[in-house]
Amino acid sequence: MQASSVNLPDYEQFCASFSWAQAWRELAGMGDGRLNIAFEALDRHMGTEVAERTAIRFMPRDSQTPVDISYRALNERAARFANVLQDLGVRPGERVYGLSHRIPDLYAAVLGTLKHGCVFTPLFPAFGPEPIRQRVEIGEPAVLVTSERLYRKKVADWVADTPSIRHVLLIDQLDEAPPGTEDAASLMAAASDQYATRAMDPEDPALLHFTSGTTGKPKGALHVHEAVVNHHMTGRYVLDMHPGDIYWCTADPGWVTGTSYGIIAPLTNGVTMVVDEAEFDAERWYRIIQDQKVAVWYTAPTAIRMLIKLGPELPRAHDLSSLRFMASVGEPLNPEAVIWGRKVLGKPFHDNWWQTETGGIMISNYASMEVRPGSMGKPIPGVEAALARKTETGIELITEPDETGELVLKKGWPSMFRGYLHQKEKYRNSFVGDWYLTGDLARRDADGYYWFVGRDDDVIKSSGHLIGPFEVESVLLEHPAVAEAGVIGVPDEIAGETVKAFVALKPGYQADERLRKELMGLARKRLGPAVAPRQIDFREELPRTRSGKIMRRLLRARELGLPEGDTSTLESGGAQ
């Protein structure tokens, strides 16, 4: 790709002149320093040529014939949803949760929620009832937006015990809404398609994203309307979106990537975004890229590894020449995937790194720069990254190249999370002075490229999803046979890591295949297939500290044949 054809032709020069004030000026704003994510995504395009451009190219699950929705039509749908919230008495600042597969009215609900000044929380539809209920109990939404199928399967049994939810809006077409729910399509049809988007303070909450921790309940990371500054800038300069591009982010809106870069960034940059209702299918994916002439493609390493495994014949049978820029996120992208992209697709994948807490891309490989296979790249303009080692009094920064340390970021970028809901102490502990502690270990080479080394905690990264071992252990411990449970991530060729559980049984229970299947079935039913363990091993006892805490680190070391490290706190007689 010629440097002159990209939005960021010279990284060093751009970084030297960049300021977040400059990035603000690329947005419309709403006067007096106020703004709204939905206004930047939709309203500001009205009265321009972008209004009639296709915003969403929807690919129905059972068809390859797309349904196009213009920016104007999407703005009207979002306005109808905002009016529905207003008519129902939902107040600005209250929370609206979305639990839905990828259909157009989910996108209208997200943007309508933001128009009305409410806080939107996406939920992953592959979650089981327990993770969904946990997140609802923590965030106390006033409204749950979902489909009839997901409602009956995952919500109906417990929603009556959740006093905060005043309205359950079903956004698929219904003959008759089940008791306790309302037909959103009918409500939207009766509502006005005009709505004066609410001007918000930049620090007003806009999005609540949940992420898993090693212990306790999921953490709700709160993001504000100012985050749109980061989303827009990185969409333009990191993902190299040009107005009118056909863009495809394969991430589900239930995750932060699918919200930040599957909704907000593409719309603020005036591109046409492909929304595929179907799940992964390699032939379908290649056909979408070919037929829809996708120019910018943002996907996950797990998906790339699945494509590689299926061989080069399938992509070579399709015309993929429309692809100008390919990027990857969610977990480290192995060097072989970059090389395969060059060889088979004619372009390298550009890996980038960020977290739920950062709200947007922080470190990336850029269109105009050399891609170093296996590297996360360099920090985005406006973000200062460093490596640090912990000391008794705080942290000290590492200046030597190729030393491993914890990746830290100087706070102050617009999409930085502003808190963990109901967990002020945990939020405070995420910072040392002006530095945000990411919990990721990395190294930096002599040229300033960052390389991911691993997590500094027990969180499992599977197919780009963060899974807290505590959630899985808690469900397994509910089974009457289980005395103890320890959960770790084990390497997987496709998913990066998968969940493996170690279980110690109570006296009188037999460790056999029947019980193993029973435990796996319980976990899949309660947690969903994305979180449940793929493997369960039985042990007479699990390694514990003297205080009784399961030593997941030791389980992992023994499983993978790694050094056990310091075992001074190990309770005597800990299982091998």
TrEMBL record:
Keywords noted in UniProt: Acetylation, ATP-binding, Ligase, Nucleotide-binding
Domain of life: Bacteria
BP GO terms, sorted: acetyl-CoA biosynthetic process
Molecular functions (GO terms): acetate-CoA ligase activity; ATP binding
Domain AMP-binding enzyme C-terminal, first and last residues per copy: 471-549
One Pfam family this sequence matches: AMP-binding
Stated name of the protein: acetate--CoA ligase
Species for this entry: Marinobacter segnicrescens
